[in-house]
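This part of the workshop introduces the protein records we will be handling. Getting from the letters to the C-alpha cells is the skill we practise here. The record below serves as our worked example for the rest of this section.

…
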Amino acid sequence: MKKRLKVVSIVAASVMGLLAVLLCFASPVTKNYVNRHGKTLTGRKVQVDKVKVNALSGRIMLFGLEVMEEDDTVLFLEIDTVDVKIALLKLLSHNLEMRHAFVTGLKVNILQDGNHFNFSSIIDHFASQKDPLASHSTSKKWRLGFDDIRLRHWKVSYKDLQRKSQWDLSDVNLLIPGIYFNSDRNTGAGLELEMAGGGSLTTKLDYNMQSNHFNLTLRVNDFAISSAKVYLDDAMQLERLDGTLAGELKAIGNLSELLKTKVTGSLDLKNFAMSNTNGQEMWGAKSVLVKIKEMNLDALNVDIEKVVIDGARSHFCRYKEGNSYNAFFVADKKQSDDNRQATVEARKKEK
C-alpha cells in the first residue's frame, strides 16, 4: 500500500512538474507562434514584442503588437497593450465568458479609395475561412458573454484618397460593460471621441440582442462642420463652410423597424458661414438653435418645438449673366456654364 502511494505521489509530482514547465514556456511559445504564423491567421504580417500567458487564470497579455499593410513594409496599426481574461472552466458547459478585454494605446491609419479600404483584405481573409462550428450545427447552443470591454487612448487617422479629406481622432475611449448573446440581458456601451482639430463626441447605448430594442444618446460639443465640406462637394460648389455644432439627441426604437425610431433633442450651430467658389458669403448666422420635440419618419411626424436664428445674414448679387446663386449647386453650375458657352458662340456668329 505504501509502495503504491509512493508511486502515485511520484507520478503526481512528475505531472505537476511537467505542467509547471509548460506554464513557464507558454508565454515564449505563444509569442513565437504569433510572430511566425500571424500572416496565416490574419492575412497580414504580425509582430509582438512580449506575451504573458497565465493558463490557470485564462489571462493573456500582448505588448507592442504591430500589424503591417499588405506589402509587409508599411505599418497599418500598433497597440501598446492587449489584456484579455477568459473563464476557462465555463467552456466545459458551452459558456464562453470573457471576464475583461482591455486594448490600450492603439494607433491606426485607415485609408479609403472608393469602395476599397486598406483593411478590406483582412475582412476578406476571415470571410474565406470555414466556420469551425458548421459541422456541429446540432451541438449544444453556446452562450456568449463579454464583460468589461475597454478601449483606451486610441488614435485614429482616416483619409479618403478620392475626396482628399482627412479626419484625425486624438483620443478615442470606449467602455462596454457587457455584450451578451443568447441572453435577455441588455448590452451597454459608452463611446468618447476627441477630434484632433477640436470638438468631442460622446454616445451612450443600451441594446438588447433578443428584442433588437435600443436606446441611444448622442452628445456633440464644439464639432467643426468644416470637415463635412468634402462630402457636400458632389451637390454644392463651396469654397468655405464654417461653424461649430453642439447638442444632444436621443433615439429610442428597434433595429427591426428603424423608421419607427423616435428622435428628440436639440442642436446649436455657432458662427455659421457658407461661401461660394467666388469667395462670396451666401449665408451666415451667429447661431442657429433647433429643438426637436419628436421626429418619427414612419409616421411622417416632424415636430420642431423651437427654431431660434440669431444674427442671420445673406448676400445676393446680380450680374449681367446670372447671379451669385447660379453656380452654387452642381447642376446649376453646369447649366450656367452651358448658357455662358452658348452666349459666347452666339456672339461669334454675330461677328
